[in-house]
Amino acid sequence: MNQKTNQRTxxxxxxxxxxxxxxxxIPTVSRVLNNRPDVAPGTxxxxxxxxxxxxxxxxxxxxxxxxxxxGIIDIVVPGLDxxxxxxxxxxxxxxxxxxxLRLALSTTNNAxxxxxxxxxxxxxxxxxxxxxxxxxxxxxxxxxxxxxxxxFVVVDHRGELGTxxxxxxxxxxxxxxxxxxxxxxxxxxxxxxxxxxxxxxxSTDRVAGYRAALExxxxxxxxEYIRPGEFMQQTGYEQTCMLLxxxxxxxAIFAGSDLQAMGIYSALRAHGIAVPNEFSVVGxxxxxxxxxxxxxxxxxxxxxxxxxxxxxxxxxxxxxQEPLDSMRVELTTTLIxxxxxxxxxxx
Amino acid sequence: MNQKTNQRTxxxxxxxxxxxxxxxxIPTVSRVLNNRPDVAPGTxxxxxxxxxxxxxxxxxxxxxxxxxxxGIIDIVVPGLDxxxxxxxxxxxxxxxxxxxLRLALSTTNNAxxxxxxxxxxxxxxxxxxxxxxxxxxxxxxxxxxxxxxxxFVVVDHRGELGTxxxxxxxxxxxxxxxxxxxxxxxxxxxxxxxxxxxxxxxSTDRVAGYRAALExxxxxxxxEYIRPGEFMQQTGYEQTCMLLxxxxxxxAIFAGSDLQAMGIYSALRAHGIAVPNEFSVVGxxxxxxxxxxxxxxxxxxxxxxxxxxxxxxxxxxxxxQEPLDSMRVELTTTLIxxxxxxxxxxx
Lengths: 347, 347
Hints:
The structure is a homodimer.
Chain A (H helix, E strand, L loop, with lengths): L1 H10 L3 H8 L3 H8 L7 H14 L4 H8 L5 E6 L6 H13 L5 E6 L4 H14 L3 E4 L6 H9 L4 E4 L11 E4 L1 H14 L5 E4 L6 H16 L9 E2 L5 H12 L7 E3 L3 H13 L9 E6 L3 H4 L5 E4 L2 H16 L8 E4 L2 E3 L11
Parallel strand pairs in A: 1-2, 1-3, 3-4, 4-5, 5-11, 6-7, 6-8, 8-9, 9-10
Antiparallel strand pairs in A: 10-12
Helix pairs in contact in A: 2-3, 2-4, 6-14, 9-10, 11-12
């Protein structure tokens, strides 16, 4: 008995011990561990400090480990070069680091073949579960994971997903509407939008939000103001150049991503057009670059880190064979006002 | 015999088979696998394509795996929020993805305690080897890894390292000198430099390169032009504000990092000073943001992705118990001229 206690103490503390040390209830510790929002910041900090001091390892997960699991959670992302995936990985890492699990990182470079190589590794090397950030062609792999009974959660799904697939995404439609409403409130009427790919659900939802805001404001939709492309800097550059050549160029652009917005910035500079005095730009994502550039970028914050955190919490529940509150979680997008927009000067 | 061949074919191809398919020699395939620079780009591409098609798995590593290894390579970085670590992780991932190994990612948030938690996981969960990007206080953990006979390579070591520790870094001194020489060549004489931490070897080397360039050009070194700080945006902002208050402010700043340069940009903008016409800025790192901002940032490219690749190749050799060509590898830094510097206007 004594030995058993010692063993446990040296390895980890129970939730009850953490609760006692922090002077809070057991459900509160549980809420902190699950990154639930309904904990006062001060309390969260105290509980987290004690967890850190104790080297706490989530008992449930540890128990799973002892039953001969791999001890590994997989995260698969398109690539680390777009910064977008990096934010999701950060969130996943934050949760995993509180457990005894390890995080295996794989990138697919948007290539279906790479995804299949990853699947091969996973099936050979075993995994406790996977978090997938996939851009296209994912359905075959999802079926295979299902068949092998490997728990998984999809983040920011970009195609249509079956209702039985656990997923976390952001409120893209509301974000698109909020960006457009903000530009309308500054007096802009000639507002363009740049798409990130017409086959991507997240992108079409943003454009639909843009349309809704214009319609609600009684502003006519000009098809030539809705530009196709990818979520990359180059798209932003090229489409801005084309927009500026229109007989009636726009006075503002709502970019599909912050990376596109960086391309918009350089195209405007190449044309000698000043942001925000002569032209307004709103981005989407709020990756770190948005607050670093000059002028800082007004953008729609997509809670990428939180999406990673929530997906991981969902996955840990699936691994522990606990029910999910919801198979589909949509986290709120927020308008972050910085320096890249200004009121339209009176003509 | 026949069955054996089939088995091998379905799992992986030998180097000899890859060489035959690509029409190159076995050493050439080996050079591609080890990311050696002495392969013509066209040849490298062809060999890589065939490797991809065949799902080739490095035989040596596979053999190691079969001897009951964990099949996991660990990468430990301070965090994914500075973009700097992300680039190194990308390079590590590129090499790992060609093997049957998996990459376990851990972040330490610069906290020694987190490093020790990682060590605990590694010792419990086993690892084939580790790549460490540590900022401080690492010596205790390095000793522990040594004692446990876990192979490891340190990337961009920031303190003093024993000569028996395998490491990869960049030529920081040459980079500091090249940045300063470039500003001198544009006519600047009042050139400031921002440090990234006087205890960090990589930073003091850059400042030493700055001093060497000024001395060589016969330009007096003003102690007030050498500013302390961290490799963060805020340091760039604060130190620029202080430099601009000097009786004789500088006309150019060599930043310790691209992140600092972003802070310099915003401080200059707050003072209504235009880059590059009124003030020149050189960064250090060449993280993706450098080519995205407006004006694009002239910087010293630190080959972070390559550093990650080379460290991984070294680690795979250590795991295979092959000798290293060198315990310490320094990769070359390069001046990347973009838009943030201009000739000093004649007074």
